[in-house]
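Structure in, sequence out. Go:
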């Protein structure tokens, strides 16, 4: 059982990745990003997830520096993720994109770097990530929004199996086949939009369970993620919500109640479908 914010899963290359972190999708660069990241680190979070396309890496980097200063932690205590965008997946472009992300973040390395979507020259982009990884510039590499077909295509030519696949995952989209596939390949499954951007907070079954366990609906969902072996990175900019989201280590959902949550699946997305999305148009 995952017992604290600092608990980790071990990726297939031996790197430890926190089970729980802060996502910053749609967090404004500047004060909003700085304060959310700083607050999360002060509250015990060790994992921060951003992306080049979020346009907030500078603020995230500043928040990291302020969080470290406030806690006395060192950079090595944190696990920082960013992602390369689909327009930068040509080999040289991906290498340059990595350097640009590091510069914006003010960091010397990333713990995890992901290909954001399986579009365009993603296999070439993967080769660039492998190069950076083999050179010791990144501790782990992975993908985001890859379906089984994309994974199979990538693995035909890949030297290194991705360590992580970050996908939309919540009780309305359990992705059981993809999850099982990743588990079989020893690829850590990670959830983005675990609360379905707030849509799930009024779901009656989840509200019932929240009352039963004396927790919030969000806490029930995030605990369900962890008990399913899924790393999760809920987004929040409010200190109280950042704290509440992380207050999920003092209870366990029963197998019967886990099954009730599993049964809420509708294969329904809040974000684009990786099979049909095209950001290159």
């Amino acid at each position: 059982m995952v017992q604290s914010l600092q608990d980790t899963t071990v990726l297939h290359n031996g790197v430890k990745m926190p089970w729980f972190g802060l996502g910053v999708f749609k967090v404004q660069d500047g004060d909003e990003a700085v304060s959310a990241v700083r607050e999360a680190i002060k509250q015990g979070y060790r994992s921060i997830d951003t992306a080049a396309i979020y346009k907030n890496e500078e603020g995230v980097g500043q928040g990291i520096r302020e969080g470290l200063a406030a806690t006395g932690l060192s950079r090595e205590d944190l696990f920082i993720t960013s992602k390369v965008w689909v327009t930068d997946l040509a080999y040289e472009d991906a290498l340059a994109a990595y350097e640009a992300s590091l510069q914006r973040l003010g960091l010397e390395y990333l713990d995890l770097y992901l290909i954001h979507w399986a579009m365009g020259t993603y296999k070439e982009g993967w080769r660039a990530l492998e190069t950076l990884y083999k050179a010791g510039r990144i501790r782990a590499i992975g993908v985001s929004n890859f379906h089984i077909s994309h994974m199979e295509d990538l693995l035909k030519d890949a030297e290194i199996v991705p360590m992580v696949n970050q996908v939309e995952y919540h009780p309305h989209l359990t992705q059981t086949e993809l999850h099982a596939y990743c588990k079989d390949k020893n690829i850590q499954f990670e959830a983005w939009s675990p609360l379905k951007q707030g849509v799930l907070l009024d779901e009656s079954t989840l509200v019932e369970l929240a009352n039963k366990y004396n927790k919030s609906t969000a806490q029930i969902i995030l605990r369900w993620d962890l008990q399913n072996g899924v790393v999760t990175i809920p987004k929040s900019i409010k200190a109280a919500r950042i704290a509440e989201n992380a207050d999920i280590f003092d209870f366990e959902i029963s197998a019967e109640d886990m099954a009730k949550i599993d049964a809420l699946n509708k294969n329904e997305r809040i974000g684009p479908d990786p099979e049909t999305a095209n950001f290159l148009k």
